[in-house]
Amino acid sequence: MPESKRRKKATYTPPPTPAAPKASPTWWVPTAVVLMAIGLLWVVVTYILQASGPIPGIGQWNLAVGFAVLMVGFLMTLRWR
């Protein structure tokens, strides 16, 4: 019985390496830190003034504003490279 021809296998080529992630702009970290500091200061002032400030008239929503600014700064740190 005749012997079958062997198949030629292509040589192994590894998958391409992914590109390195881009570095964050130089203003990214200072902006995140400033936003977190402003948010913390906003919450502290709200507690000290018993919800009558920093924006008078919105009451306890001052806490929500402070925490929102704080969270924006925190979320910026998650995207920092």
Write a structural description.
There is one protein chain. The chain contains two helices and no strands. It has helices at residues 28-48, 61-78. It is rod-shaped. With 81 residues, it is an all-alpha fold. The chain has a domain at 28-78. The mean pLDDT is 89. This is Cell division protein CrgA. It is found in: Cell membrane.
Structural key phrases:
81 residues, mainly alpha
State the gist of this model.
This protein is mostly helical. It has helices at residues 28-48, 61-78. α1 packs antiparallel against α2 (61-78).
Query: Largest sheet, if any?
Result: none
- The rough form would be described as rod-shaped
Low-pLDDT segments, ≥5 res: none
Considering DSSP H and I runs of 4 or more, what fraction of the residues is helical? 40-55%
Give the rounded overall mean pLDDT. Answer: 89
The amount of beta strand, in percent, is under 5%
Terminal CA distance reads: 65 Å
What topology does this entry show?
Elements: H1 28-48, H2 61-78
Helix pairs in contact: 1-2
